[in-house]
From TrEMBL:
Keyword field contains Metal-binding: yes
Family: Belongs to the HAD-like hydrolase superfamily. SerB family.
Superkingdom field: Bacteria
Lineage: Bacteria, Bacillati, Actinomycetota, Actinomycetes, Micrococcales
Catalysis performed (reactions): O-phospho-L-serine + H2O = L-serine + phosphate; O-phospho-D-serine + H2O = D-serine + phosphate
Gene name as annotated: serB
Keyword Hydrolase carried by entry: yes
Family matches, as NCBIfam families: HAD-SF-IB, serB
Keyword terms of this UniProt record: Amino-acid biosynthesis, Hydrolase, Magnesium, Metal-binding, Serine biosynthesis
UniProt-listed Enzyme Commission number(s): 3.1.3.3
GO annotation, cellular component aspect: cytoplasm
Protein name (Swiss-Prot/TrEMBL): phosphoserine phosphatase
Length: 345
């Protein structure tokens, strides 16, 4: 070791100067990193058509939406002394899970929803209240042109002979050109005098959007909740929601007198604010934080709900919705939402 030279001891002034330069460079590098991160975030929020490759990339970006993702990070950090971990047993989520299991309150996330095939559900699942706590995500869907392929009120307007007028008003309302509540009253007024039997006929003509059954089964298998909130009508949606096994359903109600429609809506109208409120209420009732909520819609009356959710998905949507949603899906297949949730590769 004799060939080694003794370390040079720098003067205190030189040491201070080097440390100051390092701090300045480090601050500059941190600032550049923040700018790059903000640029990536802005690019990620552009509403563009989503293909298979972009869906896979979105899954990696949005992995915190996957049930248990935050727990995985806690478990890794618990065993890493560099992150303040204390080894085994350091994750609070694991300790809470053990306490629930000992108390007999732990539910297997696949046990309650297992066995679903296709579009058939357990039946009496639909509620507008609180079905209990959930461990997965909350997905809230619009109904017309999202959950189903049709505009439900147009099916009724066809029987009333007012289809052309109703279709025009609906299109303008979905583009944000008309107030939704006022436009709904105008459209419902054209249905006055219709026999309630037309409701059953309209229900028979409603067709679920492709991929809906796969989406419902995937969300339930992950321990999540899924519901529909609509500016349409309970009389048309309730039987379908029950058959599909949805957890929540909220819509307007048609006023009926003597077996005929009066042309008025019974009760408050479910507008854009009503849809956002439904998302908040169902998340609270299920014990799901808003950071694990997804909203899917196509019209201007869905915008507040899409912005309120952690992930707002424009589904075959109008231009105003595509511009403001987090991500856009242009293929009429709801199973693509599973990839955004990280529930499908």
């Amino acid at each position: 070791m004799a060939h080694l030279q003794p370390a040079v001891e720098l003067p205190a002034r030189e040491v201070h100067s080097r440390r100051a330069r390092l701090a300045r460079h480090g601050h500059r590098f941190d600032r550049l990193a923040r700018l790059r991160h903000l640029g990536r975030a802005r690019r990620a929020q552009r509403a563009r058509p989503v293909g298979d490759r972009r869906l896979r990339r979105a899954c990696r970006r949005l992995h915190p939406l996957r049930p248990g993702a935050h727990r995985g990070r806690c478990h890794r950090a618990a065993g890493d002394p560099r992150q303040g971990g204390r080894g085994r047993g350091g994750c609070p989520h694991r300790r809470r899970s053990r306490r629930r299991h000992r108390a007999g309150l732990h539910r297997h996330r696949h046990g309650h929803h297992g066995g679903r095939q296709g579009l058939q559900g357990p039946g009496p699942r639909v509620t507008d209240g609180a079905p209990g706590r959930a461990s997965g995500p909350l997905v809230v869907l619009d109904a017309d042109s999202t959950l189903i392929r049709e505009e439900a009120i147009e099916l009724l307007a066809e029987a009333a002979g007012s289809l052309a007028h109703v279709a025009l008003v609906t299109e303008r309302a979905m583009r944000g050109e008309l107030d939704f509540a006022a436009s709904l009253r105008e459209r419902v007024a054209t249905l006055a005098g219709l026999d309630v039997a037309v409701l059953a006929e309209a229900r028979e003509r409603m067709t679920p959007t492709p991929g809906l059954g796969e989406l419902i089964a995937g969300v339930h298998a992950a321990g999540g909740r899924i519901g529909v909130v609509s500016g349409g009508f309970h009389e048309l949606l309730d039987p379908l929601a029950e058959r599909l096994g949805l957890d929540f359903c909220r819509a307007n109600r048609l006023e009926v007198d003597g077996g005929r429609l009066t042309g008025r809506v019974d009760g408050p109208i479910v507008d854009a604010h009503g849809k956002a409120a439904a998302l908040d209420e169902w998340a609270a009732a299920s014990g799901i934080p808003l950071r694990r909520t997804v909203a899917v819609g196509d019209g201007a009356n869905d915008l507040l709900m899409l912005e309120r959710a952690a992930l707002g998905v424009a589904f075959c949507a109008k231009p105003i919705v595509r511009e403001r949603a987090h991500v856009a899906i242009d293929r009429p297949d709801l199973s693509g939402v599973l990839a955004l949730l990280g529930l499908r590769g």
